[in-house]
Amino acid sequence: MNHSSIRKEQTKITKLLNTKRLKEAIDSLRELVRETQKSDLIDTLYNIEITYKSMLRYTVEGFADPERQKIYNHLVKDIFQLADDIFLSLYSRLGEGLFFDLLRKHLKDSDTALGEHLEKCRAEMERSGLMSDQEASPSEAFNDCVRKLFERLLTQSHLYKTETAALTAIFTEGSLPWPQQCILVSATTVHLLHHFNEQALLFLFKLVTHPNMEVCQRALVGLFLVLHKYDERLALYPEIGQQLLRLKEKHAHSERLRNMVIQIMRTSETEKLARKLTDEILPEVARIHPNLRDRLDLDNIIGDGFKEGKNPDWENIFSDSPELMGKLEEFSRLQMEGADLFISTFRMLKHFSFFNHTENWFMPFPWPNPIVDKILINESGPFKNPELLKGMAQSGILCNSDKYSLILSIPQMPTAQKEMMGQMFMAELGAVREIEKSDELIDGDKKSLAISNQYIQDLYRFFRVHPRKGDFRDPFATPLDFHNCQFIEVLFPGEDFLKNLGTYLFEKDRFKEALEAFNKLSTIGKPSMQILQKQAFCQQQLNHYDQALDLYLQADLFDHSQVWNLKKIALCYRYLKNPEKALEYYLEAEKSAPDNLHTQVSIGHCLLELKNFDQALKYYFKVEYLDPSNQKVWRPIVWCALSLGKFDQAQKYSYKLLDENPTQHDYMNMGHIMWCQSKRQSALEWYQKCVTFPGHSFKAFLESFNNDKELLIKHKVEETDVPIMLDQLRYHME
Fold it and tell me: Which residues touch 413 (CB under 8 Å, ≥6 apart)?
């Protein structure tokens, strides 16, 4: 076997156990357990199978046993545990990647007590002055001790059962500095993402009560990711259920946990935002950059005059690129919400040797910060300013990992660039800190949420940017559908969480997930008109028009006069090729808003589809009257006039289209108009222009032409003349 085949078998067996197909899971494990060559695992599987067969026999023979479900659940749990042990054994020998390299590396340490490593750490802290001075620089020996603790907690599952006293000591306040404790929380989280470990999971619950907010928030983030991964098997562990209830009670009156779920789910937007920044924003900024420099006088912007007032040109600087201004405003809003906007910027700044050590990807950015002091030891510019570094540490603009990337790049920058960046940071940090201070006064959870948001981004960097990212189980690689998790129902019973989450997903245009949340909400209680409409809109965006129509019709029962809903019903009927019913609802909407352009156009379209060209033309003319600048309405006017034989009118509007921004269809329609008036030579010329239209072809022309043949014949074009005209066109094309 190899790593890939083991992974495939693990996925298959997990699915079998989650769907309660125990015999198939046992059969698959029978083959795998032989590969481990461990007699204790082979015997355990044999005993489990004997017990399961006995239970099946008693059940079929009709023996009543009030404990049957309890026994069954215990069996499922035992099979899960055995499967975990079998796969861990196989990975220990055959697993590939950094995680399993570290696992094998520390197998020889399994007899060394965790407490001994802690004592070595504390001895090094004493030696380097860390016990008494927070600003003292940790020695390499201390860092090595922490690294060994990290790697052992990362890879050695038995520690969480056999070394509980040492684990508690490690995370006791005052034992290790809190940044190092934060690192070790990450070790437990990543360990659990690779290997289910009930004791490690219960320990993570314990860390959620840690008095240090930094440690506590990281434990909560890790806990949510782990619970999501193992959601389907959590019900088998009563103690985990008890811990969930305690967590629920502790945060019963706080939005912290609910907001954290949204923070984690927001990571699925990270790459989309990065692409938008790279593909849309930065190229546009680069395009207008010379204009920006001249009009804003960037070379002299840090002068005394700058302090006297604002440059009036700022209001118009984006006049030649108004869309960019809107996008920048959107990104500013997203930044204040905590969206991860900087991964594309800092993705390439993870090559420093600092990141060669796995634990450093999870290092908080505290103040004071001996690591930063060491990196900037030879600096004398703005980045030696304690206020700037303190502001960086306290600010939520960048995650911890990116802050280290920035600091590590400072010594390599030219002096002028350092000065400019330092001034920019001081200005930005000052403004942001004022906002953050205001937020903290209003909402006590803001600080904790800023910590968790930064840590989530740190985790995302590790699993998505690490040079050996493929060596770790990435929790962000699967849909983070918390609304479908059973443990979420325990933590957040009732409607509020699903309503808020569904609304968030809906606002972010994540319609599939929003629909799942709203559907679940509908099973709890009677859905409101607004929820029905949002469900319907999601279905519509997913092209499920039948389902959307049914939901819009249900919403219509609440208020038949709501124009928006009437128009949505009509739109669904149009998509479902029922223009007659669509027209009925558009006419209802027209009664409430007789001059609404969208309604007028839609009525015209329905009439056009019903081939009521005379009435359709009236509505299109009304649209032209209400909105004279709308040139697109000329096209259906041409078609209706042509269909009605009003060739002068059709020709007039065709020429208007041809003078503006014509399409190949405009040339074809003009050809039709000319032929219907017996102007064959002129028709031929317009058809030729249609065929030669850029991106068009004779094949595409024929397809459209054949669709219109009935119209031509209706207006006295001889059917026998059609193939003659087409052949003449072919000769003209040679």
Answer: 421
Q: What topology is assigned to 494-559 in CATH?
A: 1.25.40
Strand partners, 173: 176
CATH number of the domain located at residue range(s) 631-734 in this protein? 1.25.40.10
Report the C-alpha gap between 221 and 362 in whole angstroms.
13
3-class DSSP string for 259-285: HHHHHHHHHHHHHHHHHHHHHHHHHHH
Half-sphere exposure for 396 (CA within 13 Å, toward CB)? 26
Q: Is the Cα torsion angle 19, 21, 26, 29 positive or negative in sign?
A: negative
Other Cβ atoms within 10 Å of 733 Cβ, number: 12
Tens digit of pLDDT for each residue in 164-201? 999 999 999 778 999 999 999 999 999 999 999 999 99
With a cut of 70, list the residues of the chain below it in pLDDT: 109-111, 132-135, 277, 280-333, 335-336, 428-444
My answer on whether omega of the bond before 368 falls inside 30° of 0, hence cis, is yes
C-beta of residue 97 within 8 angstroms of C-beta of residue 471: yes
Q: How open is the CA angle 523-527-531, to the nearest 5 degrees?
A: 115
CATH fit for domain 562-627, picks 1.20.1250.20, 1.25.40.10, 1.10.10.10, 1.10.287.110: 1.25.40.10
Task: Choose among 626, 624, 682, 678: nearest CA to 653.
Answer: 624
Task: Tell me the whole-structure pTM to 2 decimals.
Answer: 0.85
The pLDDT value recorded for residue 293 is 41
